[in-house]
Amino acid sequence: MSTIYEVAALAGVSPATVSRVFNGLSVSSEKIRLVRDAAEVLKFTPNRTARRLRNQSSELIALLIPDIENPFFTALARGVEDRAQQSGYSVVLCNTDDDPDKETNYLDIAVSENMAGIILAPASADGDLAHVVSRGRPMVAVDRSTGFDIDAVMVDNRAAGIAATNALFDAGYSRVACIAGPVGIETTEERSLGWRQVVTRRGNPAGHDDYLQHANYRVDGGRAAMRTLLDLPTPPDAVVTTNNLMGVGALQILSEAGITPPEFGVAVVGDLPFTTLLPDAITQVHLPARHLGTTAASMLMERIAGDTQPARTIVLRASVTQGATPVPTAR
Amino acid sequence: MSTIYEVAALAGVSPATVSRVFNGLSVSSEKIRLVRDAAEVLKFTPNRTARRLRNQSSELIALLIPDIENPFFTALARGVEDRAQQSGYSVVLCNTDDDPDKETNYLDIAVSENMAGIILAPASADGDLAHVVSRGRPMVAVDRSTGFDIDAVMVDNRAAGIAATNALFDAGYSRVACIAGPVGIETTEERSLGWRQVVTRRGNPAGHDDYLQHANYRVDGGRAAMRTLLDLPTPPDAVVTTNNLMGVGALQILSEAGITPPEFGVAVVGDLPFTTLLPDAITQVHLPARHLGTTAASMLMERIAGDTQPARTIVLRASVTQGATPVPTAR
DNA sequence: TTGAAAGCGCTAACAT
DNA sequence: ATGTTAGCGCTTTCAA
């Protein structure tokens, strides 16, 4: 672990010159060679920690996501990475596990590590961002919004919920349930609000509040909720799930019960990951996960570059709705 | 962005005392209160960069994985995280994208950022680890081995390939192909070697070198390879894929061709992620992804704690083979 | 163009 | 128990 001093000594120049060489400042080509050779011999790599302490910033951006095992977030991460690398920034990923404490911990780290910026997919609405914001670190929220006045990029969740639900009614289903995520999570609330809006207008039978199920955001949550729905006195004949993983869970339960769409209607907000056998009756409302990432990264890059315009929110449409949803046959 | 000096001034103590308070060293409760209050007022958080420059180390460990979109690696990451958090370490994830250059870049970062340790799922066999190793940073390899004398934790890939192939023959298939990953990647080589070993013994028809297909490690690779296999003059009646994602691709192509296992035998080394409709005829050789992660993290923690025993390699068995593979019916 | 020197914020001797 | 101070490795004025 050699330092610029050792390189300087070996090259017969001053530490400042070594620093200049490594930062591309003007140095006589004579000494450049000397320094490079010496650095080569000593296997010198500049110590980023020291550089950072000096510069108060690094070429690292932190990306905090709530669930690293959810393909939606990994796709988003890829987007962030692609964009960041273009600008010479490296991305470190932190998994907050939907836990506000872990989130706060990683935010602290990102700030006190002097990272160049932060992209945050917030675990909860009430994370402690004041801290970060007050320090003036560039930050952009993605997927879910925060109570703070910062840049954000999101999808039109309401519209996504509406599209999913409409697709089901259009296909001829009449008792459309909804498997939503945990209460209080914005994305889920909005999507299920979309569902409710359509259902109110197009008419589920009255008195079926139990058609709205809350579950955890993962596969097992979807499974539990779907089981509950099937056990209802008057089960629904179709379901909207407000994210991809719960969609997987719901489909698993249906499959285990010997029910295959379009016998039962299924629409999922999000993309079903790694599908092998997929009834083409399933509706998917594709979310632009990767695009969310690139957009957020672009915004962050602008801020890092010094852009000081007021905070913006960009809303991406969950535009692409796919899924040949034929009129149910076997009912 | 306040410093210990400001806190010290406000609290009427010395910077050293502030430092001591924040590091839990003995300080009179009187001054502890003073310092805490001052820190509160100033919203002081210790600057990790400075601390690190001073300590030459941090409580951060870097995990480098080749494909963040592959559930195998995200499961592994979860394992690492769980174990690391237990010891008070935070994990930052870096996606090398199977690109040696990116890998080297992130390794450089990890080292020059003075991270406490590194867990590396190597992109290629010939990454430039000399650098890291020579600096004496604790490092453990996971999933694939390196040419270097460092700790490693892996699965018994040969055995996994053998188990998958045997399962297919046992079920009554007789022309068993193999979709392997890129040439030169250890895990894939080993697994396909396992396949070859069984096939040689239990007897594919002679002259079918084309039953071994190399593909990229992802879904589209599996798709392409499966298509090629089906187009062969004498197509196989079963296939082993050497990872999870290629398995997904193969199943997609079969499904699109209207072929459903067990009409055609499929065994995948790895776990099919997020399956919705899964013919129970499929054999899966489950890889202990998460366990790989926890084990690697444990080893790393030991090294960080100062353990200096010679490098160890731990081999985990891909023990659990699942999959009721009935004798094919419709042939 | 080059060097000397200060200082980024913190911790750990050392001294009191 | 507490304060003083040197220094981690780097960059960047300021002079020369």
Major sheet characteristics of chain A = 6 strands, parallel
Q: Count of DSSP E strands of chain A?
A: 12
In one word, what is the shape of chain A?
elongated
Count of the separate structural domains of chain A: 3
What does the oligomeric state look like here?
homodimer
CATH H level, superfamily name of the largest domain in chain A: Response regulator
Task: Return the CATH architecture of the largest domain in chain A.
Answer: 3-Layer(aba) Sandwich
Sequence of strands across the biggest β-sheet of chain A: 2-1-3-4-5-11
In short:
Helix content of chain A is 44%, strand content 15%. With 331 residues, chain A is an alpha/beta fold. The interface between A and B is large, with 54 and 54 residues.
